[in-house]
Specification:
MetI-like fold, about 290 residues, mainly alpha
């Protein structure tokens, strides 16, 4: 005869993914980060629907006008609607952040798993390349490449991804070095499983949680780097809007003191995106940590 379960206790045990999901949604800061980041991405994707004007639509009779019912966030130095440019600029900045992070994490994870699993000469070569890449100042590289090839969105994505993968490689390599000594991996080797199967079945799933956290941090770093480079003129080329080149309006003391609608909206969007991505990453890290109680 089976004893009755206490009230409120479900008869089926939660899976590890279920425990992680529950821990994540119990973290209010992480949930807030997810909500804010989702809103930013949604607004950027729906920019053609939400924007009241075209991003490059000029009205010379409404130059640097303060917020009004027609222009909720005012207009810039050529009469373009700030809200419209903010939404379209988000498409560029967010796309650069997510795409460069995705490429960097994919390449870095694969190289880190290979280095950690095979070791020896392969590990030595990859580790030395990582050390070299980490010593390269990214801003200087992008400025040089932009001077040679010209600033563009594909150039930014390629260069930021090319300079960001070493951090993921180090994380993946460290996890694999620990996993390769675990009993289940040793058992798979004894049973004759090949390296490809072990990497796919045992190593990559173990590497994914910390790599996902690294990916969220890379998104915030990429958005900040794009904004800084566009502000310096080495990033997204005007008139295409991005949050970074919208901040170039803030180079005048007059604008900073008396026209905050020109620089405050893009600055707040950059800060909100970066902080929410970091909060999301911290929440995911805490949620997938098996040492934490359910």
């Amino acid at each position: 005869m089976t004893a009755a379960l206490p009230a409120g206790v479900v008869g089926t045990e939660l899976s590890p993914a279920g425990h992680a999901r529950r821990r994540f949604f119990r973290n209010p800061v992480a949930v807030l980060g997810l909500v804010v980041l989702s809103l930013v991405v949604t607004a950027s994707v729906l920019a053609p629907v939400l924007a009241p004007f075209g991003p490059n639509e000029i009205d010379l009779q409404a130059v640097r006008q303060p917020p009004s019912s027609l222009h909720p966030l005012g207009t810039d130095s050529t009469g373009r609607d700030v809200l419209s440019r903010l939404l379209y600029g988000g498409r560029v900045s967010v796309a650069i952040g997510f795409l460069s992070a995705a490429i960097a994490v994919t390449v870095g994870t694969l190289l880190g798993v290979v280095a950690g699993w095979f070791g020896g000469l392969v590990d030595a070569i990859i580790s030395r390349v990582v050390d070299i890449m980490l010593s390269v100042p990214p801003v200087l590289v992008v400025i040089v490449v932009a001077g040679v090839l010209g600033p563009s969105v594909p150039m930014l994505i390629a260069v930021i991804a090319g300079l960001s993968w070493p951090s993921s490689t180090r994380i993946a390599r460290g996890v694999v070095l620990a996993l390769r000594e675990e009993e289940f991996v040793q058992a798979a080797r004894v049973l004759g499983s090949g390296s490809g199967y072990i990497i796919r079945r045992h190593l990559v799933p173990g590497v994914l949680p910390p790599v996902v956290v690294a990916a969220t941090l890379l998104v915030s770093e990429a958005v900040l780097l794009e904004s800084a480079l566009s502000f310096l003129g080495a990033g997204v080329r005007p008139p295409q809007p991005s949050w970074g080149n919208m901040l170039t309006e803030a180079q005048s003391l007059t604008v900073l003191s008396s026209m905050p609608w020109l620089w405050l909206p893009p600055g707040l969007m950059i800060a909100a995106t970066v902080l929410s991505a970091m909060a999301l990453g911290d929440g995911v890290r805490d949620a997938v940590d098996p040492r934490r109680n359910a």
